[in-house]
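User: tokens in, sequence out, please.
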């Protein structure tokens, strides 16, 4: 029986007594097991048993890359190969000093001279940092913007935490459209605070897992695919207005709970497909409109066409032979039984081409609506605080304008000074809490900017990095490394020092007199009235503070105290 001491596992590996196939714990391929550890249920194939522990390549000649075994609870759960750009969740090689990774296939190449064009960006559609990559062989899901399925080789920007992707070609898609389904206001792309399963489509009533178009003022949201479908209208003799198709998988009908205007039967069954009039909010059963089951229209296709419902299989894509846009699974279409031709019912039956016909025709002629920057808001004495259903445009008001005692809607503490108030609702905050609406660095996380979030974005419960309790309300979140902290924990020192007095300028190597908390360096103005807890003299200039204990020390006093303690010990 052969034995192997392999760097990927702490126990000795032995050849199995019976030759059998299994899942290799390194490459996750279904292969003949070459070596195994029965107590740990650890198997490796012949190819992986010969893997080197380290590899070197010319494209990263500074350091060798070391083998890393896949671990299911590793955060982040994916890496982007620095050679081919594929995103992978299997075992890999990495440089311990640089952010360079190679998947198993690329690591075993003889030599690599040039690497993948690595780029990173923060995008309004997703909460985490996105890296330029390819989805790889395990590609699944769809682009958050266009909602089309991903292919393994498509160039995207992806998230190594969530396995979410945006096609590179979709990054420049306009963020505003004017759509006949919602004529009152323009529809704008939502950002990551309101997308990702937090809204429901106003057309099909399904949860929206992508980045939808929406109107915050009316609370109306719509899938990209539904916005596309609702451009193709049906003109029918039974009604004077345009009718829009709503598929059978709608959990609720689009408008009020009306009856079909032809058979007067309620449109309530989840198996019903129907047409909807936006102007009248009336429904018509698909079957009641008398749409022909077979049709021959040579201007569209030379063969007879049969009406049927499309069944989506394996994320396959089907396109209309008339308008050349996507046909969605579950929708009725006209299909040719002699060839692969498919056509939207509205495209086949229409007498003249509607306008607009394509989503691209809806993009605003004016320049894209740019989200107002925090700097612009600050210059006009206004700040912005993003909430789930509303963007609060904040204005500084006088304390006397409050009717009664108010508590800050961000940190939930009582407001004792002049607050900031939303122009359109009763949302009020401290002056120092409202400034959290501007992404900025803080004393407890200097490396990256922190963003104010109204609630945790992750579906799993997240805990505060300071108090370790579950995050439930407003929090500060790092989109790059997923650091998160309660606003109340972050504001503990801010309320003590105040925003108009000292400024935090750096960290401090020691702990407070109680020995429990770290400290920061602060700069005090001469007008600020604060005394050193050791010598009881007024502090100005550079000093040291413990935010948790709400104490301040002269630099000379805390150094002298530390030397005294060292000598006495």
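Assistant: Sequence out:
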């Amino acid at each position: 029986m052969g034995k192997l001491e392999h760097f990927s596992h702490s126990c000795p590996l032995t050849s199995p007594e019976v030759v059998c196939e299994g899942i290799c714990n390194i490459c996750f391929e279904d292969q003949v097991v070459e070596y195994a550890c029965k107590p740990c249920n650890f198997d490796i194939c012949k190819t992986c048993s010969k893997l080197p522990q380290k590899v070197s390549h010319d494209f990263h000649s500074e350091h060798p890359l070391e083998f890393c075994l896949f671990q299911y609870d590793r955060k982040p759960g994916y890496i982007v190969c620095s050679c081919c750009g594929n995103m992978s969740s299997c075992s890999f090689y990495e440089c311990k000093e640089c952010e360079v990774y190679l998947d198993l296939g690329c690591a075993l190449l003889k030599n690599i001279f040039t690497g993948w064009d690595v780029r990173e960006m923060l995008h309004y559609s997703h909460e985490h940092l996105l890296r330029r990559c390819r989805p790889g062989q395990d590609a699944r899901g769809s682009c958050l913007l266009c909602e089309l399925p991903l292919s393994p080789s498509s160039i995207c920007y992806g998230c190594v935490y969530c396995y979410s992707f945006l096609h590179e070609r979709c990054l420049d898609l306009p963020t505003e459209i004017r759509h006949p389904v919602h004529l009152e206001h323009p529809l704008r792309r939502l950002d990551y605070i309101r997308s990702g399963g937090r809204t429901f489509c106003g057309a099909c009533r399904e949860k929206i897992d992508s980045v939808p178009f929406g109107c915050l003022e009316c609370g109306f949201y719509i899938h990209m695919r539904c916005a596309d479908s609702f451009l193709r209208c049906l003109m029918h003799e039974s009604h004077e207005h345009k009718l829009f198709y709503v598929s059978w998988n709608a959990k609720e009908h689009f408008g009020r709970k009306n009856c079909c205007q032809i058979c007067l039967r309620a449109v309530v069954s989840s198996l019903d497909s129907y047409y909807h009039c936006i102007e009248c909010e009336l429904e018509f059963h698909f079957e009641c409109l008398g749409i022909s089951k077979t049709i021959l229209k040579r201007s569209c296709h030379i063969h007879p066409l049969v009406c049927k419902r499309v069944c989506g299989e394996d994320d396959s894509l089907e396109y209309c032979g008339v308008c050349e846009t996507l046909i969605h699974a579950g929708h009725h279409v006209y299909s040719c039984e002699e060839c692969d031709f498919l056509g939207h019912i509205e495209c086949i039956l229409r007498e003249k081409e509607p306008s607009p016909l394509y989503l691209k025709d809806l993009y605003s002629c004016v320049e894209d609506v740019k989200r107002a920057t925090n700097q612009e808001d600050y210059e006009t004495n206004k700040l912005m605080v993003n909430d789930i259903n509303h963007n609060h445009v904040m204005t500084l008001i006088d304390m006397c304008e409050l009717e009664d005692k108010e508590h800050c809607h961000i940190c939930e503490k009582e407001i004792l000074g002049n607050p900031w108030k939303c122009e359109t609702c009763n949302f009020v905050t401290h002056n120092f809490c409202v400034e959290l609406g501007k992404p900025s660095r803080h004393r407890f996380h200097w490396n990256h900017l922190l963003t104010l979030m109204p609630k945790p974005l992750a579906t799993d419960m997240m805990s505060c990095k300071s108090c370790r309790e579950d995050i439930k309300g407003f929090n500060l979140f790092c989109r790059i490394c997923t650091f998160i902290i309660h606003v109340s924990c972050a504001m503990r020192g801010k309320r003590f020092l105040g925003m108009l007095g000292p400024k935090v300028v750096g960290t401090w190597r020691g702990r407070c007199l109680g020995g429990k908390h770290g400290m920061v360096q602060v700069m005090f103005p001469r007008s600020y009235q604060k005394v050193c807890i050791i010598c009881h003299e007024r502090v100005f200039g550079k000093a040291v503070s413990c935010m948790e204990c709400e104490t301040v020390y002269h630099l000379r006093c805390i150094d002298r105290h530390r030397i005294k303690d060292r000598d006495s010990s």
